[in-house]
Structure formats: C-alpha cells, structure tokens
C-alpha cells in the first residue's frame, strides 16, 4: 500500500492499464490489423484527417452503425454505412475487426452481422486502411497495392469523388446509389440511382428498383454533359469523365479544387443532390437537385397520399384516409402512405350485395395514377357501376379518355392548384364507405341547395350573356385565343382619350380605362416597339396563355398600324414602389405584407421560368413592375413583351433591356442571358423591400449609401439583422424571416450566375422548405462599398434620356466598370 505512494510506480500501473484496454488500436491511426478491433467510441482517422471511421448514431435514433464521415467539418455527415439493415444497440460490446481475412462486425451477442465476404489465402496479414479519399480498403498486408475489397465499390447513398457507378456488361447489372429510408434510418430506401442497364449511357432514378421516373439523358462527349442536365454547363465543382471497356462502362468524377468539400447523394426525398460545405456558415449548401420538383418523384407520398407543390407539407392524405405511420411521417418518410379511416362495406360484410352502400368522393385537379383498367361505359354512372362491381376497385375516372378504374392502391397522385396545370389535370372519384358521407337526413337540404345553385347559375349565365352582347355591340372586339382584339378607337374612348395616366416605363405609358360593362382596365400604350404585325401577335398570343395568381392578366391587345396597346386587369393599390418608398409612417407596409409580396412575386417568376410551355424571362424586375390588387396580393406586370425562349435552349442573346440598379452583370458583358438575370433583379428588389428605401442613397457627407453591401456585411458577420429593417416598422418583424430574406437576396445577386438559386429554390427557401446558408459577399458589392465615395448610382428607367455625370475609381471591379459603360450607353 505504501508502494502505491511512489509516483513512478503509479505511472507504471496506469500505463499498463491503458495498454491492456486499448492495445487493439496500437497499429496505426488509420489502420485496423489482424490483432486489433474497434468498439465503443474508438475511431480510426485517415492520414490527412479528411475522414473518420467508427460507430455513429444518426439523429435521435438509439441504433448504432459502423460508418465513415467527414473529419474536418463540424456537422457529422456520413458518406458510407456498413450495417445499413442490421444496427447494433450496445457499441461497448460490439466489435469491428479482422477475422479470417475479412473485416467483420460482431454484435453484443457475438453474432456476425456484417462482413466484407471475400476469400483470401493469407488471412493473418490482412489490414483495413481508411484512405484520405473516404475509401476503406482491405489489403493483403500494409504494403500491398492491390485492394482485396474497398468500400468505394459498395457505395450506399453518397457518391464520393474518385468512385464510380458502373454497368457490368457481362452480367448487365448496375451499381446502385441507394437512399436512406429517412434522416434517422440508413436502411436502403425506395430510391436508387444507377447507370441505365439498356446501355444508353444515361443515369436513371428508380422507385422500388422498378419504376423509372427520371433520366439524365445520354452523355454528350463533345460538350461533356448529360443531355437533360443543362446545369452541368455551369458546373464549377465536378469534372466528370466516362470510361468504357469490354467488361464495364462507368462514370467517375473529381473535384476541380481539393479545398472543396462536396458530396453527391441519393437523398431520401427521391432527388439526387449536389451539396457543398460552407465553412463560414458551417452548413451544407444545395447547389442543384433533380428532379427539380418534389412531386416529380414517383409515389413520394405513398399509397392514397397526395403530393402538392408550393409549401410544406408536400404530402397529405386523401379525404377519408389517415396517416399510416406518424413516426415516419414526422421524419419526412411518406412511403407508408395512408390507410382508410373506415373500411368499405363490401369488406365488412361480403355477404351483402357488393358495393351497394359504398360511395365516391370527387377529387378534382389531380394527376391521375398509373395502372388504370379501361372499361366500356357510355356514361359516368355506368363507369361508377363498373367500379362497384369489384370490392377491390378503389377509384374511377370518366372523361374524354373514357372510363378507367383502379383495382390497386392509388400511387403517385398529385394535387394541382389549377393555375396552369391544365392538360395534366383530371378528376378522380375515390371510393369510400357510406359512413364517410353526410346522413341521408340532410338530402333535402342538399337538393334545395342544388336547385338554388342551378337557378343562380342560370341567372348568372343570362346576366353574363347580356353583358357580353352589350360589350360586343358597343366595342365589337375580335377574339384571338383567350385574348380580345380591341379597336384603337374603342380603347381611346374607354380611357377618355388617354387622359388618366397611371404611370410609365421604358416601353410606354399606362392609362386607366372603363369598358362599357363597367369593368376597369389598365391600357398600356407601347412606344419604341418596332415589331412586325405577325411577330407582335405571336408574342402577345403566347403571353395571353399565361395565367397565374401572381401575374397580371393580359385581357387583350390592339394593333392598329404602328399603334400597339396592351389591355390588363386594373390593380387598385398601384405598384410596389408607390407603397414602399413613401415617408408617412401610417402607410408603411407591415412586415407580413412585405414577406407575402416577396413570396408571391417569386412564385410568379417561377411560373414564368419553369412552368410555362416556353421559358419566359421578364427582363425588368423592379418595384415599379410589381402591382398590388385590392388585397395587396402581388402581381408581376409588364412582362407582355419579355424574352421568350424554348425549353430546348438555356440561354438567349438579346439587346440589353431593364433598369439600371437592377441589371445583372451578364447583361453588361454582352453574353447570352438566362433566367438567372431575373433572379439578380429580384434580389436587388428584396433589399428594397427590407429597407423601405432605394438601394443607393446620397448621404449628407456626400457619399453614396449602398444598402446591399450593408446587408451582406451584417449577414456574414452575424450582426444585428433588425438594424437593416425599415425603421418605420420599429423592429416589428420575425428575426428568422428577416434573416432568411436577407440571405436569399445576397445569394440572388452573386456575380457568377451559377451561384444564384433558381426562382423555384427561392420560393422553397421563403416557404421554409429549404434551408439557406450564409452567402459569400459578392465581389462587386465589396468593390462598390470600398469605392462608394466615387460612385453615383442610378435607378431610373433604362429608356430615360437624361444625361448624368458618372465617375469611378481606377480599381473598381469589372462589374462596376461594365455598369458604368452600360449607363453611359
């Protein structure tokens, strides 16, 4: 006992205990050899510290897995999992070790639950080494170069640089990149990415290893992109290459810079995603994803679930059904879908006449599921009866395509909003138990309501007919498609000879008018439009088909020689700039209203960019072109002669148009533009929505205040975002929404258009569907801030004829110089 007081003896005892406990990891920090094992919190780390191997538990799960994760980022992000389907609970008694030449995982009961499953002649010399690429390699000795087995050949949900997803030409089998089930369960999910077994050199995504719902299109060796992934033209992270020999075909990729931490994953959302790590914000930044829309993922909401774009949650159960697994649903795993709240009568009592008490509920504006059976029926009632003959018939549809019934669970239903999805939108009738409907005692009320509604409908039709006849009699417009072709004299009369001017812009002035039916209109008299008659009518006809709640409706037009006019719905609350840039405190727009205006405008632009038959680039987004209706709902206006490009093209060369202060850099440089030019203008407008002032203002000291630079600095330095808010609001705004809008604005005005989000992503961020990271400060904003005392900014229309004096410092950025030459021209 006295001997233990000797410090040297005590040290020796402690050293002996440590060696006896942890001798298993004495071989090397990145290696497991034949006489070692790994358990508990022990890990091995790759030589450069890039990756770590050990036990981990995802999210709030109580299960543990052997996995590899990044070693140099603060958020534990796994890239490979060994025992995906067989987790362990007790990591202290579980071991990862070399056994009989294999790397195996033994659980607490001594049962082998995972193995590399290879054969080797000299098992005693086998070692497992974690490389700095994230590849776990099994070798026959530490100095052996040829791998016996490597994890990069067995990817889970992450495709690492240097890895490959190949097609074995001998077996015609592809390697799979398979999603997790959800954020807390790495078990193989329903979605997988693979090289097309048909040999098209395309990547495809499948649901349940069977149903294909997305393809990259074939590889184009000349342009080095996949045909249906045009984003690859703008890719600045990955360098793809294609290889093919008699045994296999495969793609691999590398990173342009080793400093970049980027990953390519098959996400449990059913989308493939490219993400990059931003150390400044300590978050993963989503660069792109495919398919672009969540509801394009097949059967994302499971059986009897309906998918709706535009906000969370994407999934909901059909009427008469409820969520099957609340736990999985809360983890964004909707694959279990929904189940009936009440069993069908034919299931409860098969002895009764089949289906007599079951009924159908109408579900309009949906994308119909597949696997329908065509039936011969002359009417809807016959079609309904055909479905009732089978107890397992779940729904029917009757339209111009005839009668179709579904004998299975309903999968891949999408609910449309009805604002532009016509052509795909249909009505389906869902079979439910009779108890899901109101009692028959209410039938009298229903009948009375139906009669009253019919009478009201007839009266409305009569009144509508009279008004239509009166309008045609007095102004006699011709109908072209969904538009009215007005005569010039008729609009001259409606506007009282263009006497009440509402405003003006780069392409003309707008006047208030009243039609004979007392409806109020806004008439835009176009100026400096040198289009031919055929081109003008063609573009107007295209815009006339554009209908969205956040776009001003084009009602008609007039083309009388050189006099060309457009007729729009009248917006009683005027333009956003008139409501935003005023001094009266009592009239300042509330934050909630501003946020909804920003979101609604983004939805309107998303529709123009992504959901029309042709991509429409507005080219002049600014507060003056955002109009507000009676409820302050935003309407994007003045897009009647925007640039229209086909879906087969991603860029278009056009003459510069727009407004100084909102012009994207690519306008100035003369390159072909994309829809990202609108994104830049939208971002500049977001800054003004936040501050309630123009982005550039002359300060008392003679300097120019440039608000976007202030926002960028506060956001990147984690400053007080409330200091950026319009002072008239007295700080009355949720900090998270304010911060989100400021971050979005900074991302939208990035110098490189490939770094800007799409308008669809902007909508998802503002809705809270996507997280937004801290953006880098655009170089142009930094330069403009550093030289603000020498720069005068302008926000007047690009068509203004006024001359201004402009001076710039010699070291201004190329973007600032380009803006200067643009303003001078």
Automatic annotation (TrEMBL):
Signal peptide bounds: 1-23
Binding-site residues for ATP, renumbered to this chain: 524
Transmembrane segments annotated in the record for this chain: 446-467
Bulb-type lectin domain ranges (all copies): 29-151
Documented EC number(s): 2.7.11.1
InterPro entries according to UniProt: Bulb-type_lectin_dom, Bulb-type_lectin_dom_sf, Kinase-like_dom_sf, Pan_app, Prot_kinase_dom, Protein_kinase_ATP_BS, S_locus_glycoprot_dom, Ser/Thr_kinase_AS
Record carries keyword Transferase: yes
GO biological process assignments: recognition of pollen
Protein kinase domain sequence ranges: 496-770
Composition bias, Low complexity: 797-825
Enzyme class at the top of the EC tree: transferase
Cellular localization per UniProt: Cell membrane
Entry's Gene Ontology cellular component terms: plasma membrane
GO MF term set: ATP binding; carbohydrate binding; protein serine/threonine kinase activity
Catalytically driven reaction(s): L-seryl-[protein] + ATP = O-phospho-L-seryl-[protein] + ADP + H(+); L-threonyl-[protein] + ATP = O-phospho-L-threonyl-[protein] + ADP + H(+)
Keywords recorded for this protein, A-Z: ATP-binding, Cell membrane, Disulfide bond, Glycoprotein, Kinase, Lectin, Membrane, Nucleotide-binding, Phosphoprotein, Receptor, Serine/threonine-protein kinase, Signal, Transferase, Transmembrane, Transmembrane helix
Domain of life according to the entry: Eukaryota
Residue ranges occupied by any Apple domain in the UniProt entry: 346-433
Region (Disordered): 796-825
SMART domains with a match to the protein in the record: B_lectin, PAN_AP, S_TKc
Pfam families assigned to the protein according to its UniProt record, in alphabetical order: B_lectin (PF01453), PAN_2 (PF08276), Pkinase (PF00069), S_locus_glycop (PF00954)
Membrane topology designation: Single-pass type I membrane protein
PANTHER family (alphabetical): OS07G0415500 PROTEIN (PTHR47974), RECEPTOR-LIKE SERINE_THREONINE-PROTEIN KINASE (PTHR47974:SF19)
UniProt similarity note: Belongs to the protein kinase superfamily. Ser/Thr protein kinase family.
Name of the protein this chain belongs to: Receptor-like serine/threonine-protein kinase
Organism (species): Hibiscus trionum (Flower of an hour)
Biological classification of the source: Eukaryota, Viridiplantae, Streptophyta, Embryophyta, Tracheophyta
């Amino acid at each position: 006992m006295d001997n233990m007081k000797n410090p040297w003896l005590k040290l020796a005892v402690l050293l002996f205990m440590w060696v006896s406990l942890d001798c298993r990891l004495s071989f090397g920090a990145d290696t497991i050899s034949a006489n070692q094992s790994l358990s508990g919190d022990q890990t091995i780390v790759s030589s450069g510290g890039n990756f770590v191997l050990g036990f981990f538990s995802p999210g709030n799960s109580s299960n543990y897995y052997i996995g590899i994760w990044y070693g140099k980022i603060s958020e534990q992000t796994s890239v490979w999992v060994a025992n995906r389907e067989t987790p362990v609970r007790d990591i202290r008694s579980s071991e990862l070790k070399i056994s009989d030449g294999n790397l195996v995982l033994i659980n607490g009961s001594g049962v082998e639950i995972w193995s590399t499953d290879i054969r080797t002649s000299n098992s005693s010399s086998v070692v497992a080494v974690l490389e700095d690429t994230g590849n776990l390699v099994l070798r026959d000795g530490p100095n052996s170069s040829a791998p016996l087995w490597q994890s990069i050949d067995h990817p889970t949900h992450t495709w690492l640089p240097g890895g490959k997803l190949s097609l074995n030409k001998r077996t015609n089998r592809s390697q799979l990149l398979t999603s997790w089930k959800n954020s807390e369960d790495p078990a193989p999910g329903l979605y997988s990415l693979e090289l097309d077994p048909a040999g098209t050199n395309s990547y495809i995504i499948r649901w349940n290893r069977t149903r294909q719902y997305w393809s990259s299109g074939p590889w184009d060796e000349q342009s080095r992109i996949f045909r249906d992934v045009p984003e690859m033209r703008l890719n600045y992270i990955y360098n793809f290459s294609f290889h093919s020999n008699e045994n296999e075909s495969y793609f691999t990729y590398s990173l342009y810079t080793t400093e970049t931490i980027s990953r390519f994953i098959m996400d449990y959302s059913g989308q493939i995603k490219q993400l990059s790590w931003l150390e400044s914000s300590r978050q993963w930044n989503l660069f792109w994803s495919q398919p672009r829309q969540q509801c394009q993922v097949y059967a994302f909401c499971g059986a009897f679930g309906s998918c709706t774009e535009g906000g969370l949650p994407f999934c909901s159960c059909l009427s008469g059904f409820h969520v099957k697994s609340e736990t999985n649903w809360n983890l964004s795993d909707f694959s279990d879908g929904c189940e009936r709240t009440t069993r069908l009568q034919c299931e409860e009592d098969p002895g009764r006449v089949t289906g007599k008490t079951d009924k159908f509920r109408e579900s309009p504006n949906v994308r119909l599921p597949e696997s329908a059976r065509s039936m011969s029926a002359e009417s809807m009632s016959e079609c309904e009866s055909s479905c009732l003959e089978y107890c397992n018939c779940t729904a029917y549809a009757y339209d111009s395509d005839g009668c179709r019934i579904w004998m299975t669970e309903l999968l891949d239903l999408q609910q449309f909003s009805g604002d532009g999805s016509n052509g795909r939108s249909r009505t389906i009738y869902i079979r439910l138990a009779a108890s899901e409907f109101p009692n028959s005692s209410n039938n009298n009320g229903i009948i009375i309501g139906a009669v009253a509604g019919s009478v009201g409908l007839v009266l409305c039709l009569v009144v509508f007919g009279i008004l239509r006849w009166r309008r045609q009699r007095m102004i006699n417009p011709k109908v072209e498609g969904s538009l009215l072709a007005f005569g010039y004299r008729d609009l001259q009369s409606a506007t009282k000879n263009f006497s009440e001017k509402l405003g003006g812009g780069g392409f003309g002035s707008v006047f208030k008018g009243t039609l004979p039916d007392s409806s109020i209109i806004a008439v835009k008299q176009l100026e400096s439009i040198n289009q031919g008659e055929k081109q003008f009518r063609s573009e107007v006809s295209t815009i006339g088909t554009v209908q969205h709640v956040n776009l001003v409706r084009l009602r008609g037009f007039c083309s009388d020689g050189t006099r060309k006019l457009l007729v729009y719905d009248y917006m009683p609350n005027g333009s956003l700039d008139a409501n935003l840039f005023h001094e009266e405190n009592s009239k300042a727009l509330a934050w909630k209203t501003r946020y909804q205006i920003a979101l609604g405008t983004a939805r309107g632009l998303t529709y123009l960019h992504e959901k029309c038959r042709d991509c429409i680039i507005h080219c002049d987004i600014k507060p003056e072109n955002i109009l507000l209706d009676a409820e302050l709902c935003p309407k994007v206006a003045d897009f009647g002669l925007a640039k229209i490009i086909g879906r087969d093209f991603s860029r278009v060369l056009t003459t510069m148009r727009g407004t100084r202060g909102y012009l994207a850099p690519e306008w100035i440089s003369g390159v072909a533009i994309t829809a990202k030019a609108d994104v830049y203008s939208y971002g500049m407008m977001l800054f003004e929505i936040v501050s309630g002032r123009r982005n550039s203002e002359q300060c008392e000291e003679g300097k120019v205040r440039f608000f976007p630079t202030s926002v960028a600095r506060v956001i990147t330095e984690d400053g007080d975002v409330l200091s950026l808010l319009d002072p008239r609001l007295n700080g009355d705004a949720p900090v998270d929404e304010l911060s989100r809008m400021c971050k979005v604005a900074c991302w939208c005005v990035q110098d490189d258009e490939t770094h800007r989000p799409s308008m669809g992503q902007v909508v998802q961020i503002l809705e809270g569907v996507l997280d937004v990271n801290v953006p880098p400060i655009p170089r142009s904003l930094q330069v403009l801030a550093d030289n603000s005392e020498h720069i005068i900014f302008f926000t007047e229309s690009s068509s203004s004829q006024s001359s201004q004096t402009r001076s710039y410092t010699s070291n201004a950025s190329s973007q600032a110089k380009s803006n200067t030459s643009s303003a001078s021209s």
